[in-house]
Amino acid sequence: MASHGARGRSGGRPTLEEVAARAGVGRGTVSRVINGSPRVSDATRAAVEAAVAELGYVPNTAARALAANRTDAIALVVPEPETRFFSEPYFSDMLKGVGAELSDTEMQLLLIFAGSDRERRRLAQYLAAHRVDGVLLVSVHADDPLPDLLAQLEIPAVISGPRSAAETLTSVDSDNYGGARQAVEHLLSRGRREIAHITGRLDVYGAQRRVDGYREALRDAGQAADELLIEPGDFTEEGGRRAMAALLERRPGLDAVFAGSDVMAAGARQVLREAGRRIPDDVALVGYDDSAIARHMEPPLTSVRQPIEEMGRRMIDLLLEEIADRRPAVSRGLERRQVVLATELAERASS
After folding, report:
1. Could you tell me the residue ranges of all domains in the chain?
2. Cα 269 vs. chain centroid, distance in angstroms?
3. Where are its TM segments located (predicted)?
4. Which pLDDT does position 12 carry in this prediction?
5. Choosing a second label site near 262 at 20 to 30 A (CA), which of 35, 166, 176, 209?
C-alpha cells in the first residue's frame, strides 16, 4: 500500500537513491524524470513516478543544490571567436538542440566564448570556482587545454566530437568518415574523376576523419588520392575562397570539389564562378552540414547532412546523467562514451 510522506531507510526524508532502488533504475534516470526530460520511456517514467509517490519523495531544488554544492547551471563553452559563432549555422543549430533539451528542466544555460588567451584564463578561474555543474564544449581542437582542465577539476563535461581516437571525455559526434565517403562516392557515381577536397582545420579530429573518408572512397574506386587535390581550409568562407584558388592554380582540370563545410563551399563557389567554371556542368560541388546556406545557394548545394540539433540534445542528455551521477573521477573515467550519429547525403543541383 502506498505510504504518503514515508521516511527513507535512514529515518529521514526519502532520497534520490531510494527512489531509484524502488523503481529499479539508476539515479540519472530518476533525475531525468524529475526534471521532465523527454528521453525516458513511458514505462520507466511510470515506474519512477510510482516510486516517488510511494516513498513521498519531494524534490527541493534550492535545498538540493545548496546541500550538494550545485548551481543548477550548465556552461556551453565555445573556444572560438564570437564572429565565427554568429556566422556559421553549425553553432546556432547546436545551440537550438541544447536549448530544446534543457527547456523542460530547471537548469540554466550560460554561453561562454573562449577564443582568446585572455578569455581562456578568465574561464579557467571561473570553472575552478565550480560555478557551473557541467560543461558542454563545442568545436574542440586537438591542443585545447580546456578538456584536461575540466578533468582535473572533476567537472562533468561532454564535447562535440573527440579530440582523437583516444578521447577520454564523453563525446557526441556525427559520422565524419562515413559522411565524406558518401560525398565522394556520389561524385564518382556522376562520372567525376578529378575530385578535390577542401578540408576543415586539421587540428580538429572530425576534419581529419573527413579526409580519411575522402581518401578511402577514392582508393576503393581504384584511384589513388592526389595530394595536390587536397587543400587545407579553416571552416570559413574566406578559407574556402583561398583553398579553391590554390586548387585551380595547381589542378585547373579538376571536375569536382568536396568542401568540408557549406560555408567553405560558398567561398569555393564564388572563385569557381569568377574563373568561368559552371556548376555543375564544369565542376560539381558538394558541401557538409546541410545548413540553410546549402538550400539557399544557386544552384542549391548537395551537402552531407549531419544531425546537429540532435547532437546538441544528446550532449545535454549525457551531461545531465553525469551531473546526476557524480562518482569518483576514476569510476567516471570508466564510463566515458563516444556517441556517433549517422549522416546522410542531401542531393541537389550543384552535383
Report:
1. 16-59, 69-173+309-341, 176-305
2. 27
3. none
4. 65
5. 166
What's the CATH architecture for 176-305? 3-Layer(aba) Sandwich (3.40)
User: Cell 579553391 maps to which residue?
Assistant: 244
Total number of residues shown for the chain: 351
pTM reported for the whole predicted model: 0.77
Strands 157-159 and 302-305 turn out to be: unpaired
In degrees, rounded to 5, the angle at the alpha carbon of residue 86 between the alpha carbons of residues 248 and 159 is 90
pLDDT tens-place string over residues 31-46? 778 766 777 888 898 8
Going by their DSSP bridges, the two strands 338-341 and 256-259 should be labelled as unpaired
Give the whole-angstrom CA distance, residue 214 versus residue 153: 38
Q: In the structure grid, which three cell numbers stand for residue 168, read together? A: 577520454
Least confident piece of the model among 65-69, 123-127, 223-227, 285-289: 65-69
Cell (9 digits) for 171: 563525446
Q: Is 4 exposed, middle or buried (0-12, 13-18, 19+ CB in 10 A)?
A: exposed
Number of Cβ within a 10 Å radius of residue 188? 18
Let me know if the fold of 69-173+309-341 is the same as that of 176-305.
yes
User: With 50 as the cut, is the pLDDT of residue 95 above it?
Assistant: yes
Q: How many CB atoms lie within 10 A of CB 190?
A: 15
Q: Strand pairing partners for 231?
A: 198
Distance of CA 33 to the CA centre of its chain: 24
* Cell output for 14: 526519502
Measured distance CA(36)–CA(164) in Å, rounded: 34
* Domain 16-59 classification at class level: mainly alpha
CATH architecture of 69-173+309-341: 3-Layer(aba) Sandwich (3.40)
